[in-house]
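Here is one chain, start to finish.
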Amino acid sequence: MSTASVTHLDEANFDQAVSESNVPVLVDFWATWCGPCRMIAPVLNEIAKEQGDAVRIVKVDVDNNPALSNRFGIRNIPTLLFFKGGEVKDQVVGLTSKADLISRLNALK
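Its structure:
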């Protein structure tokens, strides 16, 4: 088991972190005031720890990064985007199960 954890990205480091990743990246668009965002955060932390270096879990605060939110058309949060090779391959809006998230990430490996 790895000690991998969730990383916070912003407009300055997003493109490099996502495009240069050689593993699938799950990006959580969230906000501190969002109840469902707070509910899914522990699930994302568990996945990051369990999957280790096989995937990368990152968070983007929509309030602090409006350009990224606009770029990806984020209208509701939480929105989870799944990237592979720097491109969006899948998306979930709202809450979903841990099993669903793992299944979607495994499909990108």
